[in-house]
Predict the 3D structure of the following.
Amino acid sequence: MTAIPESRPQSVVAGSSDATALLDIVITSLRDVLDQLRIDPHANFFALGGNSLLAVRVAGRLSRALGHRIPATAVLDHPTAQALADHLAAMAPEPAAPGIRAATDTVDTTRTPRYPLSAAQRRVWLLHDVDPDRLDHLVTVSFEVTGDYDPIVARTAWHRVAERHEALRTRFEPPAEGSEEPFQVVESEPLTEFTFLDTVRFPEAVRTRVVEERIHLLHRTPLSLRSGPLSRVALLRTAPSRYRLELIVHHIICDGWSLAILLEDFLDAYRRVAAGEPGPGPSQYRFADHVHWERETESARWPALADRVTRRFRDRPETLPLPADPVPVDEHADGDDVSVPLTAGLGAALARAGGEGGHTRLTVALAALAVLLRRISGADDLVVAVPVAGRVRPEDEGTVGLFVNTALVRLRLAGVRDVRTLVARAREEVAEVLDCQTYPFDQLVSRLGLPRDGTRMPLARVSLAVQDFAESPGPGPALGFQWVEHDPAERQSKLDLAFSLTGGGSGAEGQSLTVTYRPSLFRRPTVRAWAEQYLLALDNVTRAVTGGVS
């Protein structure tokens, strides 16, 4: 996770005629986000590795520097520094631009250990309140660790991570009498759990069973929001130089981006502890600051966004007619997934779709999903859920917490006769998603008058996630150990089908497609066939937008 530099672009007055200063600000923001020493004013953002998430980060820095909100679509639609600077010079600032402060300003937040929930956290709280035993809110990661790994150092390192990040010292309390607001409490001491079990002394058959049962129990034991802890780490020694490392964190304090921060900080803390060095100290980024900003500033945009989003989905189709084959399944075990690797050629084509066609991976992936859903359902009016990072301010990039929100796209395929038209419609929807990404999904559900169901996501049966944030690089050679991640299968799914493109960032290597599904509705061979058909559609779409044969 790239650290946020202390020196930000110099603030300028909106509407300044100093074109050189404005270009310098744009170049500095791009260089900061793209991690480039030099940026040619005419270099293409996508060719430099840009994507929709990085566009949001660039826009956040520009907003902070210029003192008014810059939409991420400005970066995507003007993909060179010169074109973007020219556009910013000509555009009129949004009125008043509530809450966007210059680089020298700070949000005045009292360091209180008790504060309200963010909109994203409140959504999880409501679902958890309906079903406290739900398992789909457990963020789980598993590693096979080999080499010179010290359990005592690992325990100390994890506690340092918990001391550093307030999220790992947080628990939640219900509304006080006469109030409807739950709140979160940050404890002064680490509120986390670390257990170690050495199974080497057991016979091999017993050892295997103990490890499997222990991991199964870890993954299927809910975390209590009220008492905590909301994170647990289990280390199991399975051989003299081999371990199984399990990390489980509740989603209300952690999203995928946060997980990358925690793993990176854990490796840094492990190195420091092993070397006898002090820890880096508490993080300067606090989730309480985000909650304060959301309530005091960003929420001023929500009424206008509410009208805009509601108009788009008020006349939506009632459901997507997917061909199901129902079987009885326990609702807390109604989740599984299928993973298929992308070929190197398809990964490279996706990268070219940005550099040559100016399309984000999300745009191309969404167009391909529309092809598949049209083929298997026959519907030409598609509603798809899209998780969005929700980190629109530079300081959010280093904060551990739940920022991710759910947005909706609506693809109308009537009249679409070629791939390029389809991609153009998908691009329009992605622009809407980026501009409305902070509007709380549960508020849209309420405005549309839909009932809440703790086991299913309302409004959409299918979702698409494109992971564009950087993954943890893993242990370096100096640490003396290596790990390999094991991605556990989903235990419970809120969606009927959830498509996720992960790995490789915007590059060509190591990308894969995972489709999470409900075994109560679909058979595994059917879902695997759909996954393979989706990759064929993705290949055809990328060929079309890069000048190949569609």
About this structure: The two ends are 37 Å apart (CA to CA). Residues 335 and 518 are 5 Å apart (CA to CA). The mean pLDDT is 87. Residues 524-545 form the longest helix (22 residues).
